[in-house]
Design brief:
This protein has helices spanning 19-40, 49-52, 61-69, 94-104, 124-136, 149-165, 168-179, 184-192, 196-206, 213-223, 227-239, 246-258, 260-273, 275-284, 290-301, 304-312; strands at residues 6-13, 42-47, 75-80, 109-114, 142-146. The protein is an alpha/beta fold. The longest helix has 22 residues, at 19-40.
Length: 317
């Protein structure tokens, strides 16, 4: 009997020297589907340029892969061993191009590096490029090293399970769908029924749109369940200079109440960006934690402009 399920696409990205690993990823996806799909109502679909490309001559092949195939994928799994791959107009290899494109789109990536013994005729320049890439992306996405194909299959399956169980696949799907709802009352209701990280992603998608107050209230109310996500959303708004946005003041006042540590981090960040907004935040929601407050005061004492403005409000002795 059939069943309804959401289909999530996993893009397999690698140079040509890890064909065994590419096949192994497909086997582990098939294994997960066989065990979990019907129960979870989720189907994981492996995607690669070999299986999903269509012959065309209108654009560079890598541009076609990035825009027509990769853009529709929810997770990327990349593998490296001896080769970084063939250069593209933008990057040192198609694989690196795909990974960077996927991450720029704020989508998750898992990268695997083989520690198997390399052939004697391996290109040292290619190996060096792999090490450079590994160091560059060490803190930007999940990556793991493995020693053999058996270990690789075990790690891949474990990571698929952990990733699906984390709810992150739902997050990307749900935030895309939710952000396209036109009725503000329905949008607020949908936000209230989802994870805080969904609310954070919806905020980033609709920040430049005009919405009723109920939408911004729903986002902040959901984000207060996860102060770290609320802090990150306010970091995003700070980077955008969105200090007059209806959600910004609601957000930092809420953050000050639910996590002074995260609010302190936000305050110090805003200070480096906009001293006027910092002054307004500090006077509107001062820190009650003595240690954190003393750190802020020490910072203020070194800034004559801020000190003068805050003394005007009599909120700083």
């Amino acid at each position: 009997m059939g069943f309804k399920a959401r289909v999530y696409k996993i893009f397999i990205s690698s140079p040509s020297d890890v064909l065994e690993e590419r096949a192994a990823i497909r086997r582990q996806i098939d294994k997960w589907n066989a065990i979990h799909s019907e129960k979870e109502n989720i189907i994981l679909l492996p995607v690669s340029w070999e299986t999903h490309s269509v012959a065309q001559a209108e654009t560079h092949p890598q541009n076609y892969i990035n825009e027509a195939i990769l853009s529709n994928c929810d997770l990327l799994m990349g593998v490296f061993w001896c080769r970084v791959g063939t250069p593209t107009p933008r990057e040192n290899s198609g694989t690196i191009d795909e990974i960077k494109t996927h991450i720029r789109r704020k989508k998750p990536a898992m990268i695997f590096f083989s520690n198997r013994e390399r052939p004697r005729n391996s290109d040292l320049a290619q190996i060096n490029e792999i090490e450079i890439f590994k160091n560059e992306f060490r803190d930007r996405c999940y990556y793991v090293e493995y020693s053999n194909i058996i270990e690789f299959e075990s790690v891949v399956y474990k990571q698929i399970e952990l990733f699906v169980n984390s709810g992150k696949l739902h997050v990307y799907y749900d935030s895309d769908v939710t952000s396209m709802i036109e009725s503000d009352s329905k949008l607020a209701k949908q936000i209230s029924e989802r994870f805080p990280i969904v609310a954070k992603r919806v905020l980033s998608k609709i920040i430049d749109e005009k919405h009723d107050e109920c939408v911004w209230d729903a986002i902040i109310k959901k984000l207060e369940k996860s102060p770290a996500d609320l802090r990150d959303a306010l970091y995003f708004m700070t980077d955008r200079g969105a200090f007059l946005h209806p959600a910004f003041e609601k957000g930092y006042i809420t953050l000050a109440k639910c996590s002074e540590v995260d609010y302190f981090s936000l305050l110090t960040y805003v200070y480096t960006v906009n001293s006027f907004t910092f002054k307004h935040m500090y006077t509107n929601s001062p820190l009650s934690d003595v240690a954190l407050s003393n750190q802020i005061k020490a910072m203020i004492d070194k800034d004559e402009y801020i000190e003068h403005k805050i003394r005007e409000t009599s909120l700083l002795d």
